[in-house]
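Title: Prediction job returns without error message
Component: structure pipeline
Severity: low
Priority: P3
Assignee: unassigned

Description:
Job completed but the reporter wants confirmation the result is attached to the right record. Sequence as submitted:
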Amino acid sequence: MPDVTVLVFGPLRERVGVDEIQVAGTTVQEVWDEVVRLHPTAGVDAASVRAARNLSYCEWTTAVQTGDTIAFIPPVAGGSESRAAVRVWVTNVPIDVGSVIASAGSSADGAVATFIGRVRDNSDGVSVHRIDYESYAAMADVEMRRIGEELYERGGISTITIVHRVGSLLVGEASVIVVVAAPHRDTAFPVCQEAMEMIKSTVPVWKREHRTDGARWVDARHGAHHEVQP
């Protein structure tokens, strides 16, 4: 039976107690079942967990081979250059927002649509003093590049840049920026918005809010959260 490396992230990692496990199984489902057998708390909210094999999302019935890396990914919060028009990267240093915007498009582009996600000082009416962002960096890069290329290949835009920051961010700091340059605003605006929705849905980045009433992992897709002792 194949031996594979299992990676777990965010609130799932806290339930399991480790971030990497070696287990055996012939399918992704069998690998998951073995993880739950070894760490029963992993089975909590199992229906919301997605699986990835070797940096790509996969089905639970997918066969595995010795040496594969299987990632079990709880709901996400929401580099490298794949081509001149599509730039994506994950960084652990402050995002230079001005430089990212200034490098978008060319003089032929009359529109530069920008979305900047920042850490706000409250959540559900409770004060927040920082947010920790964690990612499966290699796969986050792959997913952001896929999103950028998919939107670029539809046509109508000149460049798209996506940058996501990880680590501990204070109130007011930028966590993500999407910049879309196009000849016209009626193309740039919707692509920028769609890119952000896609990022929140599939890019494996999690956030843990540190609030006056404790810390919690936040599921940006569904508005759910997992309480964590401060």
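Comment from assignee: result matches the submitted record. Helices lie at 10-16, 28-38, 97-102, 137-153, 185-202.
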